[in-house]
């Protein structure tokens, strides 16, 4: 038996659509696997009632297939589904790390990233790896067709999750098909600023680099109260605010001394829009961790 804690993640970080990702120190899924002749999946925890246990429909089923590793699998969800916090990816990442260990497949963490990404194709239609990469490797990740690079970074964060669901599949439909040269130049500049900020663990640069003129404005329209939440986070000292993944969670970078006030401001703004929300005071954290074997 192998048990793995796989963290929630925030993809895109504004300027890095489908490329950037960050592991969050909390919340997390816990995935336990045991060898079995046939694969079965049991899901408990946050939002378990919305998650299919059929291996054809659960993200971990694709991981089992790819690793040829049938197992009795228990997923204890700490990451709410349809959150923008890489819920579907956390289970896939945890299963990839756990099954690799259980069956002694000997794959490196980097090699497990495309395998876990197959699970994302099951739910969103695209095997985007920007959530599974940080959930497996930890830190700040840059994923391209050439693979994933990661660095550790110490950046305090708030992720504020409203009590509404936005599916990644639906939110991909509003992504513009084209961008102007001006938008491209702005986005490259912001993404580069953010990446330097991560390497320096500098919340000012990370926040500055989160700005994105192309995808985020379209996605923000799907989140009731977004503009107020963003404004209140900045008022409380946030250095940057954007949609986390495909939403509806909103992520803010800040200094540690401001994190509590940023969280309070974001919660208050959602409440003002008539929406209950939960704020996680978190930071960039480690990747999937083996808890027991
Ligand atoms: N192991 C899993 N964990 C979470 N969601 C899953 C899992 N397997 C399948 N799903 C489905 O994936 C969808 C949520 O994924 P997605 O829309 O990408 O949201 P998130 O941003 O939270 O990952 C839901 O429809 C859910 O039923
Ligand atoms: N790059 C993807 C990331 C989706 O993240 P999720 O946490 O919402 O699953 C996208 O923006 O569609």
TrEMBL record:
Enzyme Commission numbers on file: 2.7.1.39
InterPro entries (alphabetical): GHMP_kinase_C_dom, GHMP_kinase_C_sf, GHMP_kinase_N_dom, Homoserine_kinase, Ribosomal_Su5_D2-typ_SF, Ribsml_uS5_D2-typ_fold_subgr
Superkingdom to which the source organism belongs: Archaea
GHMP kinase C-terminal domain residues: 198-266
Keywords carried by this UniProt record: Amino-acid biosynthesis, ATP-binding, Cytoplasm, Kinase, Nucleotide-binding, Threonine biosynthesis, Transferase
Sequence similarity: Belongs to the GHMP kinase family. Homoserine kinase subfamily.
Function according to Swiss-Prot or TrEMBL: Catalyzes the ATP-dependent phosphorylation of L-homoserine to L-homoserine phosphate.
Full protein name: Homoserine kinase
Organism of origin: Halorubrum xinjiangense
Gene name of the record: thrB
